[in-house]
Amino acid sequence: MLKTVHRWLLKRADRQADNIWIFTLGAVGFFFGMGIILYAENALAASVGQEIIVLLGFILAIIGGIAAIIGYLSLSLLRFLSFANRERVKTPTLESIEVEEEKSP
Predict the structure, then answer these.
(1) Is residue 58 pLDDT above 90, yes or no?
(2) Domain count of the chain?
(3) Residue-level pLDDT at 104
(4) How many Å apart are CA 62 and CA 64, to the nearest integer?
């Protein structure tokens, strides 16, 4: 199961456009939810309706914040994980050059 999650994370890291889209939508949702909260607190009279509107804004802000965090982490940390797992090209050393010269006819 751990390998499956690891593979999924690596695939998620390679989808930069999707991650930017998730981050952007999350940030917009967060700020829209915060705007609803501020509007309801400042423009509406204290009532049950105001509290319901604030609750909806709060839920929207939480969902948007979580989406923005997921998008941001996918852009940064998962991308680093992807780079760390790629096979690196080894620089030739004197020993590896000598071994290859001995093998060639």
Answers:
(1) yes
(2) 1
(3) 59
(4) 5
